[in-house]
Amino acid sequence: MRLLDDVIPLPVTVQPSSAVFTITADTRVSGDYPEVAAFLGLPSSPAGDVRFVAGGDGPDESYSIDISDESVTVTAPAPAGAFAAVQTLQQLRSSDGRLPGGHISDRPRFAYRGVMLDVARHFFTVDEVKSYIDAIVAFKINHLHLHLTDDQGWRIEIPGWPRLTEVSGAAGTGVDGVGPGFYTRDHYREIVAYAAERFVTVVPEIDMPGHVNAAQFAYPSLTADGEPVTQRTDGEVGYSSLVAGSETTYTFVEDVIREVAALTPGPFLHIGGDEAQATTADDYRTFMSRVLPMVGKYGKRAIGWHEMATVDLPDTAVPQFWRTEPDDEATARAVAAGSQVIMSPADRTYLDMKYTPDFPLGLDWAGCVELDRAYDWDPADRLPGVPEHSLLGVEAALWSETLRSLADVQTMTFPRLPAIAEIGWTPRAARDWSSFRRRVGAYGARWRSGNIAYHPSPTVDWE
Ligand code: TNX
Question: According to DSSP H, which parts of 344-395 are helical?
């Protein structure tokens, strides 16, 4: 049987009792939030002994659970909290159906707990993304950031610009030319809906003004001289740029932002902004001063990699810090002017960093990131001038230059994503590496039975 604190992320309050509730063939769910309760996979009946009750206070994702010998009661102020409670119960449930007794009450530290999947360097199908969503929600991850465009591929259909996907989503795109594919608008809607049913907000990223070779390969009118560029399938960065002084650029960008905003119910639209080494600082400022208002015009809040903070930002804009330096003046300045920040330092949260120097997948420019390194840091300490209250949350990022399959994605994600998930959810003072490594040890068996590949990190005693 599991212990009541065998949960990742560790809940805020855990009070074990000697009770044991056993889920049997007769167990039924009842009460409020029936669509959410259904994720437990049990039949429902009005007098069911696993009861869901709308109530309690706190943010939408908060919940409490009481487990006695006779019943389980979940109380949550909103469906998102009931869903979080379901994840906790699924983790507590042993294969023989037993649930340890006691009381849990829980709420997140940060509103935004995300993971980014790069579908540009290697495309992943709708079914692969759905399966990824299933695996991440277990750890209360609530944002899925899709990196939809880059130098090597364009993965989202845009009306009026058909060659973006016909050409730059075709066979031969992606790093090494082996990651082709794109989402039609219906595919994308299907991902968004599937995510929403699981309380995950999709954050679409259109990377600009750099990382645009695939767009320029499809449309030479987007280059400085109107001349075609060659297709690129290598892993270089920092060589392509949209033209800040050309109106064609802004017609294109507005068509893309309008469409992606219309397809995306969530509040965020990520505009990239990273590694714009082929854009002068002046052009970068010109470009951002045109594009940031467009994001607002179509009802979205802009997220951008923290280079975006080198320009004056509307206070709704969110810089996402990704580098390894110990400070960043521009991000601190944006915070002083009212912006919130997403923390994704590469040396802790990049799921594409190798675990060990000889690991077959991944890159190592930010160093190797074993599980203890992914866990043992705190986002509120990461940057001077970026304290706890200025953090929207944390995000782990999985770039796909070296990935070739869903199994590769899973191997790089697990067990590190659970570490980042705990940093994003659990109160800082309650976090502890030795406790985490014990709790994560139970997951190997679960991932194996769920056909989810993972790295059996030597830092953990796997059950
Ligand atoms: C840097 S992180 C990039 C990406 C690469 C990644 C590989 C960031 C904002 N840009 O273009 O894929 O490194 O780790």
Answer: 346-349, 371-375
* Residue 214 vs residues 60, 159, 241: alpha-carbon distances, Å: 40, 17, 11
Q: 118: CA distance to ligand 1 center in Å?
A: 10
* Confidence band for 185, pLDDT divided at 50, 70 and 90: very high
CA distances from residue 321 to 305, 337, 342, 404 in whole angstroms, order as listed: 6, 16, 6, 27
Residues making up the chain, counted from first to last: 463
Count of CB atoms situated within 10 Å of the CB of 387: 13
User: Could you tell me if the CB of 363 is within 6 A of ligand 1?
Assistant: yes
Whose alpha carbon is nearest atom 5 of ligand 1? 399
Q: How far is the CA of 320 from the centre of ligand 1 (A)?
A: 12
Residue 446 structure tokens:
């679960």
Ligand 1 atom nearest to 211, measured from its CA: 11
Q: Annotated catalytic sites, by residue?
A: 275
**CA 103 – CA 115 distance, rounded (Å):** 30
Ligand 1 mean position, distance from CA 451 (Å)? 28
Report yes or no: 149 and 121 within 8 Å, Cβ to Cβ. Answer: no
pTM: 0.98
Q: For ligand 1, say whether the CB of 321 is within 6 Å of any of its atoms.
A: no
Q: Whose CA is nearest to atom 10 of ligand 1?
A: 274
Q: Are 411 and 455 in contact (CB under 8 A)?
A: yes
Q: How confident is the model at residue 463 (pLDDT cuts 50, 70, 90)?
A: confident
- Spell out the domains of the chain, with CATH numbers in brackets: 13-106 (3.30.379.10), 112-430 (3.20.20.80)
Give the orientation angle of helix 416-425 with respect to helix 433-440, to 10 degrees. Answer: 130
